[in-house]
Amino acid sequence: MDKVHSGREGQGGDSGASGGRARQAGASDRDQNHQPSAGPVAPAEAATAANTQEPRAKPSRRGKKSQNGQRNPAPKQTGEPQQPQPQPQKNRYRRKTQAIDGIDGDQPAAKPGLRARKNMAETATNWRARPAKDPLQAQDSNQGPEPAADAPQPKPPRRAFADHYAPKKVDAWLAAGRLVRGVLRINPRNTADAYVSLDQTPSAQAQRNYPELSNYVIGSSDDIYLGGSECRNRAISGDIVAVKILTAKAAQRVYARHRRGGDRRMDKMAADRRARMDRMADSVRAVSANMAPDDVTPCEASSEDSLESAENGRTGARVPALFGTVMAIITPNSDRTFVGTLSNRPPVAKGPSERDSQLANALWFRPLDKALPIMFVPKASVAKQPRTNEICAVHMGAWDAASLYPSAKYLRSLGERGSLEIETELILEENSVSTEAFAPGVLRCLPKTPWRIPSTELKCRTDLRQECVFSIDPPTARDLDDAVSCRELPNGNVLIGVHIADVSYFVRPRTALDRMAQQRATTTYMVQRAYPMLPSVLCEDLCSLNAGVDRLAFSVMWEIEPATATVCSTWFGRTVISSACKLSYDDAQHVIDGGHLSKSIACFEHNGARTRPASAQRRDEIEASIGWFYRLSLIMRKRRFDTGALSLHSVRLSFELDDAGQPVACQPYAIKDSNRLIEEFMLLANMSVAARIEASFPDSALLRRHAPPLERRLEDVCRQLAHAGIEIDTQSAGTISDSIRRISDADTRYTVEEMLTQPMQRAAYFSTHAIEDRAEYRHYALNAPLYTHFTSPIRRYADVIVHRLLEASLAVHGNHVTAEHALLPPYYSPFFPRTNATGSLTTAIHDSQSILVPAPELLAIMAHQCNLRKDAAKKAQDASSKLFLVNYLAATALRTGAPGVITQAIVTKVGENGISFVTPMFGVDGIIYMDRIADRKNQVVSADGREWKLHLWSVKQASVTLVWTATPDPKDQLASKLSALVIDDTRHAVVGFQHNGAVETVTQTYRIFNKISVCIIPETNPPDLTVKLVMPGV
Q1: How far is 702 from 706, CA to CA, in rounded Å?
Q2: How far apart are CA 486 and CA 567, in angstroms?
Q3: How buried is residue 818: exposed, middle or buried, by Cβ count under 10 Å (0-12/13-18/19+)?
């Protein structure tokens, strides 16, 4: 979904299998629970006391008295001239330079004595008076004579940030519970605020040291708040950091310093808005009194419904429960390539290093992502400086403690914004999507082509080539990860198989290919093409389960009782398969609807010696298998939702491109029964493998968890829905799902699902050693106790790790293992393949666990990398979809000569200053602000040739009353053009509005779930969508 706003104002799930448009890692939504306002960021005054050294003796400037009482002149000093030493200001110093308790030392600083306070004040004043040399710059050895031995030594330079702890100290303090670790994120709407989400359960020592952590639940509890850049201490979003929890006194100072100014501004804005609303209330009542009772409902303003408050996170003043400061960066975010503009203009704020004349000639990089810091680039490293309006890419370098800004390495200029090619390149660079060719060292890890399965490998695997195996994928898919099989058993049950490409056979641990796959971590799908995780020879050939060829696979098979779709027994194995055919979702849907396979579909079968064209009997088997899968999937899906699963669907756009790569058609992607058929069995395979690897390696399994929704955000959405008469039971995912299913109207149900995606968090990978309570492994949306990703190893590195864990499990336990899990029952089916292929076949059994199972700490790093890259790929995919939508709408508007495209929108929220909406046709959502319509011109689109002016408005709970004045505007020629631009599911045209040419007053009332007409206006440079209200509505 793309966020757009009236008046071009910017607004700054993966919910596991839920399909919901969850907010990234719960980041911006959780940040809105408590947001101090932005303020000027100062250097780390908190570290002053820690960096202060005992001052050395200074010679008196006035000289010493002789025996006769006369003063002798002070001896001349050699070397560097001495800086003047201002007198300390005792009373003002303590408020300015008092250290935050424990912010950089082992214990809170003791109260200094009078002499110490004087010395610290004097030192702090000297640091402000004398700029420090940048330690990164080389020092000239011929800068002057050496100072005399008895000359006073220069003070150490002032530090912009506290020094990071050494790795050994970090490890020791983490073990002692004096530090905790987590993933840092910066609030994109208020970059002065940052939060740390713990990625492992706090240790017993940490809970003793910090009782606030005793009830901490990963993904659900309040995150640790970092106020300002000094507490963030040079970390950026995505870094794994070591954090020290601040004392209550220190936390109070941090919070006060970073919210006071912003809160006053926000309070003044709220007071002004409230006064305006109060002034208009009587006028709206007077106008409403002259209307018919059914036309309008008198309304009053309600402070609890302010959209602006929600947008700025001020849904009620709430002080964060935990405050902290970063003491070290444990694992930096590997994505350090950023895009932005490069210029000679230096930043306003300067630290000690920035005052150095040696940085006066540096170029300054300003990222497009405002959550990132400004960076300096050495001018000598840029051969040709880009123009001001060009976008360039840099790689973030070192960030010294003496500098307010990090260094960066200039990479290249991307050009000026606007075209599809440049914007796509910008998206790829901004999300660190690797587009370069694979290195020679990586390609040397690949087998030589043409390649055939070695005979030794065939002997060691279970041969399933004679099973009726086939794949169902989108028609354009080339990387075929999965295939399925079905066979009726003599006892009336069915043998179902899911067969996944064995990528781990080719991507062996500790190779260049493995390191590259881990770095990329996922295939990124843009609208026009995919950027693969693995070389194409693997993605499209050797690993892809193409029809009619032998392929290596990991297989999960179940004996299932068909009446209830109950799993009786589960089998895992490394296999060889030969896919009979590749079907599209439309092909499978045609069979579900009662048709037959098209004769144009190539089908094959293996007779034990070779592969040949399929017989009519094999085609009949494929059709019968599709029927079995469909019937079983209906039972499984119903049971899954009856037992508490939740699925929230958002609009996913599908584009048709011409030969030049330009979009010529756009429509929502349709989900069919054939899609759900495959989904159910992929979910079953993921759950079964999760149970298997967790049973085998309880401390070293890679699983995927989905935390419950953000409570405050969920309460806000439910309160809005309650105003509209819809009650949502939020006790569990299942009760939410039941509440949605009770909504009969399709548009209302779609809107409710869209609204409920807002508080949902994204699912994330984790290492089981990091979370002590197994109850926290649960996947909220699926209502599954254990879940992982196993079914897409060609495009996800997490699946490759899981395949290795499963291989090691086979080496230890064989093809069947029981555990306390419904998907691993003790019964072993006699219909499973008979094979001697137990254990690992590419690794010696005694070495399998040490090679294939990563150490818990390393597995946690891998999980973090997979999370970062998956989120970045999702962000790039969404940005690509928005880019092509903008270009499609721009081309549509250009053909008709009108400014934009009119479509239908549904009101999702009413606040005292705006209306939230969503457009089902394009999946565009945003806010139309009332005050902007009233205070600015051209904020609505006239469909009848008149000029519409918003005069008054009033809000109460879930409804808003608008009072318009309409006057003739003979210059408006849009009315004749807009009818051709209406695009929505009803395809109706603009309705004419008759008027007599006089000024009229029109009153409207909007409530949640009302349909309104909006005009989507595309702008290509930079790509954006502005949405305006159409008056009168169509």
Answers
A1: 14
A2: 14
A3: middle
- Beta strands 764-767 and 901-911 are unpaired
Q: What is the pTM of this model?
A: 0.81
What is the rounded distance in angstroms from the CA atom of residue 832 to the CA atom of residue 815? 10
Q: What is the mean pLDDT of residues 568-585?
A: 95
> In the chain, what are the helix, strand and coil shares in percent, each to the nearest 5?
35, 25, 45
130: exposed, middle or buried (Cβ count in 10 Å: 0-12, 13-18, 19+):
middle
Q: What pLDDT score was predicted for residue 899?
A: 78
Provide the pairing of β-strand 375-377 with 337-343. unpaired
For the residues of 111-174, what is the DSSP string, one character each? PP-HHHHHHHHHHHHHHHHSPPPPTTSPPPTTSSPPPPTTSPPPPPPPPSSPPPPPHHHHHHHH
Q: How far is CA 77 from CA 58, 82, 147, 148, in A?
A: 11, 8, 8, 8
Q: Strand, helix or coil at 175?
A: helix
d(CA 693, CA 699): 10
Q: Which tokens go with 863?
A: 């999980």
The model's pLDDT over 789-799, given as tens digits with 9 standing for 90+, comes to 999 999 999 99
With a CB cutoff of 8 Å and minimum separation 6, the contacts of 148 are 77, 78, 79
The continuous run of DSSP H or E covering 916 comes out as: strand 914-919
Q: Which amino acid is at 296?
A: V
- 949 secondary structure, DSSP code: E
Amino acid at 1032: P
Contact 670, 761 (CB under 8 A): no
Mean pLDDT, range 135-146, rounded to an integer: 37
Q: What's the rounded Cα separation, in Å, for the pair 472 and 491?
A: 28
Greatest CA separation found in the chain?
A: 125
As a three-state string, the secondary structure of 284-327 is HHHHHHCCCCCCCCCCCCCHHHCHHHHHCCCCCCCCCCEEEEEE
Query: CA end-to-end span of the chain, whole Å?
Result: 24
234 Rama sector, left if φ>0, alpha if ψ -120 to 50, beta otherwise: left
Tokens matching residue 901: 């495209």
In three-state secondary structure terms, 794 is coil
CA nearest neighbour of 760 among 787, 739, 730, 785: 730
Closest CA to 473 of 586, 550, 556: 586
Cis peptide before 131 (omega within 30 of 0): no
Q: 44: Cβ–Cβ under 8 A, 6 or more apart, which residues?
A: 159, 160, 161, 162, 230, 233
Model confidence pLDDT, tens digit, residues 343-369: 888 887 766 665 565 577 789 999 999
Q: Which residue has the tokens 């970045």?
A: 872
> Helix axis angle, 90-97 relative to 114-129, nearest 10°?
70
pLDDT tens digits, one per residue of 661-710: 999 999 888 888 999 999 999 999 999 999 999 999 999 999 999 999 99
